[in-house]
Amino acid sequence: MSMFGVLQALLFLLCITLLTKPVGLYLFAVYESEAPPLASTLGRLEQLLYRLCGVDPKQQQRWSSYAQSVLLFGLFGIIASFVILRLQQLLPLNPQHMQSVSSDLAFNTAVSFATNTNWQSYAGESTLSHLSQMAALGFHNFTSAAVGIGVALALARGLTRKPGPYGDHCVGNLWVDLIRSLVYVLVPLSLLGMLFFVSQGMVQSLSAPIAAHTLDGVPQLIPMGPVASQEVIKQLGTNGGGFFNVNSAHPFENPTPLTNFVALLLVFLLPAALTYTYGKMAGDTRQGWALFGAMLVLFVVGLIATTAAEQSPNPALAGFPIDHAAGNMEGKEVRFGVFGSALFATVTTAASCGAVNAMHDSFTPLGGLIPLVNIQLGEVIFGGVGSGLYGMLIFAVLAVFIAGLLVGRTPEYLGKKIEAKEMTLAMLYVLIFPLVVLGLSAWAATSSDGLSALGSAGPHGLTEILYAFSSAVGNNGSAFAGLSANAPFWNLTLGVAMLLGRYFMIIPVLALSGSMIGKKTVPKGPGTFPTGSLLFVGLLIGVIVILGALTFFPALSLGPLAEHFAAQYGKVY
What we know:
The chain is mainly alpha-helical. It has a domain at 22-210 and 221-256. Helix content is 62%, strand content 3%. The protein contains 19 helices and 6 strands. Helix 3 (63-86) runs antiparallel to helix 17 (488-517).
């Protein structure tokens, strides 16, 4: 890694670490205090939204009601977005005269954005109208992130609250969590971020494409649109869906190295801060810092591995007269270079954000392996907004259970005993992900419809399939874009994968919250495992890595690892 790369990495890690506590304190004040900050201004808007939506902010929900609200809200959003996409040619704000989106693509896209995945089987600038970009997609960029935060808070309350003032088995109120997320967090930060991005040259317009001519006189249309407003919430909400087909590699969507750096800070900002918020809810900030530490270690290891792989020569270009010492520049923006691309890929796949500023399909076999593994570990290395925290807490419960087995006593977490019911729910959460990924990947790899979309044969083709379903179920949204996914088979199967990866995994999380919140806490004793210690951080990392390795290692051996070793003998795909 060059000195510039080292300094950039250190600056990024320093900024995230320094922002975690103040932003986490702010989030704690927003969600867990009776009087959120800025009550004289934003508080009025909050109360107005409660009245318009018919929400009683003092009404608490049990886990089952909370889950029902999540599912119904998701269903409403999917239907509304599907209708907008199918009818966009009849709706306003369509200066590009975009036509209707096909039913299978509309289903895929509506599900994709409602589940915070933002998988894109289309080119946004040539497929969607401005209204579709803002109403069908931008709406979900805000609300899907808010729902993720709500579910994380519900689990945190289940683990930290004692029976009493909020009512037995009540884990909060989705509508209150959602409205507060929008009013106090996502919308204000997005407005500030949009102004910054516009100041750096990012496009923000509702005009039609601009006609221009190249120096050779060739006519060209330069697409315009509400790019900056989409870009900031795409990153802040760990959504990842870009206005343009090439996403953050486009100069209108990511003009400078500075916007690239700020975009990455936005991706990690809320997932990191929520760990501190959790520590405050637990009454012991060491609990939050332990989760943050585990996330940070996994991220740094992945960044080093991705950078090392991409700074090595590309075996596919071995015979070409180029400077191989520059590393693998295929599919990368010269503005960002190898390290900027490796950093972006590691951050966005660690944080369940499908944004890309380089082509993952052009990474070296090992360079592409790390983003794939980041997703397959469960999107808990910071993860999505909210989803990263509740995923990490599930692994924390598993780690505590394993520690209890080692010392021969009933495991407990934050003073609450972990029993058979909780372990069943935790394992259900952990097993859904590989079951759906590997099951659908096997189907696609043996189906003519699945194989017809591949851009490569051999191990790389398998990796394209495996990455697609891992990204969909993990609600990440990035892709090995050699896979031509805009076909009925892929639109439908990926849509189903995204639904299962979001809602089938949220249900056991909320059920676990409901099971834990009614339990009494027991005082600490000599045998209590210290879950705010470095020992726990190490155990937690081990549980995450071992579960991911044991589950996906055979498939990875046939994909990127086989491709890597084949390349050593001159065979490239």
